């Protein structure tokens, strides 16, 4: 086959056509929100007060709205098989999205309410598609996963956990959107390798819509993802992972965890850290991994830049950490043993770097966790 003809065929593919529509639509809608912020800012602005706030000027925090609208535009341009897969994601993602947007606007929706909304999205996705996790590739546990009730409840908890983890890491310009875009691409790469082209196409379209938001959020932070955006993207990531595992028996369940290793580790470690410090697990603080990276390294290396620039450098620096995870997952996805090894290696690497930032010296991550916790 002529390489030029092959390349032309790739760029004329319906999936790339739909992805381009999603990217452009999301980007333009994000720009529109920024331009019109004086009209909706009274409702949509994220102000600078709060322990986890690093931005220096009030900024609209409804970036999830153009992502969802851009995805709807892309959905209208997709082939029938991809449209059939995207439809449940759009419908089932609405509880997570709407409760998140309600928090973005009113600032009065509790953490537990939002967590339950993301879990409801997982339940709704199962009800629409009849997919739920039937295995986690852990001996003994998989026997319980054969029971529908256990499978569905576990899936709802997993979806809620991933959705909330994306919200937790959403601390700097470009961080969540970079991580999520790369994760969608990682899932798509594995799906393509095992012949699941429909899921690969779906992942690519989702990545394109998130990437459209990225270029308005980064580097100048003109628009924030907000809870609506982070919860919807987190739900979509979790559901693509469920589909990858359930539709493709050759893919280890731990491969999906490897791709999401950063947000998963951040959530688990944050709960552990706050328990050790005898604080409420949901209490905000400035001890997240991304917060420490900015204060310990970015502030030192790039101190001559403005705070806004340092925020963007931190977001991109940590967001692109997911590259290592998706590359490793693409090689080890068929082996549970290798996937488990890679996951724990990356998770322990995270803890080791965290320990270095806290202790100002290198030490064993195991020692840091169990003998010298912070």
UniProtKB/TrEMBL annotation:
Q: Write down the Pfam families for this protein, in alphabetical order.
A: Glycos_transf_4
The signal sequence is none
Q: Keyword set for this entry?
A: Cell membrane, Magnesium, Membrane, Metal-binding, Transferase, Transmembrane, Transmembrane helix
Q: Transmembrane segments in this chain: where?
A: 15-35, 62-79, 85-102, 109-128, 143-163, 175-192, 198-216, 228-245, 251-272, 313-331, 337-355
What InterPro entries would the database entry show? Glycosyl_transferase_4 (IPR000715)
**Membrane topology type:** Multi-pass membrane protein
Where in the cell does this protein reside?
Cell membrane
Q: Which cofactor does it need?
A: Mg(2+)
Name a GO CC annotation attached to this entry: plasma membrane
Q: Which GO terms describe its biological process?
A: cell wall macromolecule biosynthetic process; cell wall organization; lipopolysaccharide biosynthetic process
- Residues that coordinate or bind Mg(2+): 167, 227
GO MF term list: metal ion binding; phosphotransferase activity, for other substituted phosphate groups
Q: Which domain of life is it from?
A: Bacteria
Put simply, this protein is called Glycosyl transferase
